[in-house]
Amino acid sequence: MRNQIFLLMLISHFAVFAQSPNTNGKPQLFKNKEEEKVFNLVQQASFEYFRKGAEPISGMGRERIHLDGNYPSKDQTVVTSGGSGFGVMALIVGMERKYISRQEGVEQLSKILHFLETADRFKGAWPHWWNGETGKVKPFGRKDNGGDLVETSYMLQGLLCMRQYFQNGTGAEKALAARADKLWKEVDFDWYRNGQNVLYWHWSPDYAWQMNFPVRGYNECLIMYVLAAASPTHAVPAEVYHQGWANNGKIKADSVRYAGLSLQLHHQGNAVNGGPLFWSQYSYLGLDPRGLKDAYADYWKENTNQSLINYQWCVDNPGKFKGYGPNNWGLTASYSVKGYAGHAPSLKNDLGVISPTAALSAFPFTPKQSMAAMMHWYGTKKDKLFGEYGFYDAFSETDNWYLPHYLAIDQGPIVVMMENYRSGLLWNLFMSCPEIKTGLKKLGFQSPKIP
Question: Which of 100, 257, 395, 413 has the fewest other C-beta atoms within 10 Å?
Fold first, then answer.
């Protein structure tokens, strides 16, 4: 009997282990060689957006790439700070996976650093867009021609991973790490408080604070507050997080539930069943959500449940859109049939448009469901949906709409989160930063990676 009990315990242990993709052992990530083959192919193709598709002078990620000729020539030079931050992380994956040589990675990252050092900055923060040839700001909107602290934070997340990746490397690699560190230390987070206990998204030397966007959660911006608390040069006090981001505790949700799944946090804009899925992804490309908790949420649970709600909504398909189901799901901000939209699981915000980045970047949280979608798309829709830089940004079977359009801010998370699923590479790099550990502790976070 004792041996039987032991055997049952052992079987149970390995059953759990096989479903936990980022433990310290060797988990079962793929059921067969075909899954592994397609996974590698999708990750590498998405990576090429930031290598082959990069703007050549700056080395940065272009805001968008259209492969159907429907692409104004003036937009070819537009590069993005946040999407390029994801691209920096993708280049690290590329070196690690040998999609490019380490020397090729060093050369492109050196070009990117030179651009960031010489391009327009505003109190250390970068704008949303620049001209990649000149480094001059390209306004994202009429008054949005200055610093964008959220997009800057996505770049910093990448630069800190780069610093950690190269800090014990060759002389040239250590020099890159030092340059990345200098840029990180020059961002004046405290300035972006506008004298208050909250962080503001924008500041412009021409329009000052007229954009008037104090950032309160819950949305994609948690990483900005973590970095602001962690800054070794321009840190903000903990009350900026608790009073600003957490809105004096109002960030906690009033029992948001769907299909037996609950969310702990109030998603901005009164999102009915959680916001677009990128809210559970952008801040967590480097910030490791495994075991991450604070006074407001368990972030692994929040991200997993948001992903599962998104999946189940598409399975239930209350909008009766063509093609939705267990192997065809994923709602997030992306191109849409008409323009651009923040697709999300509600009757108002579900427009019948599936965005592959949503499910693919959710791999750590929904491995089975993400794998089913990836295999279905590649196996049955490759000719309509897969191109030079991986799966297209979005599609709609209802409208028979498939355009070979890509966005940097959607392709980057695919590469990074697929890697975090199988190795935890970027999570391990970012969480190894001593100042990040200090910042998280300062804000009251708990994590297995905080001593």
Answer: 257
- pLDDT surpassing 60 at residue 14: no
> Is 231 in contact with 435 (CB distance < 8 Å)?
yes
Q: Read off the tokens for 32.
A: 């067969």
* Most distant pair of Cα atoms in the chain: their distance: 77
Q: Write out the two tokens for 289.
A: 């959500």
Model confidence at 447: pLDDT above 50: yes
Q: Summarize pLDDT for 174-184 with one digit per residue, the tens.
A: 999 999 999 99
In this structure, which CATH number among 3.30.530.20, 1.50.10.140, 1.10.287.3510, 3.30.390.10 belongs to the domain 29-442? 1.50.10.140
Q: Domain ranges for the chain, please list them.
A: 29-442
Task: Please answer whether residues 128 and 151 qualify as being in contact, where contact means their C-beta atoms are separated by less than 8 angstroms.
Answer: yes
d(CA 146, CA 123): 9
**Exposed/middle/buried for 174, CB within 10 Å: 0-12, 13-18, 19+?**
middle
Strand partners, 203: 147
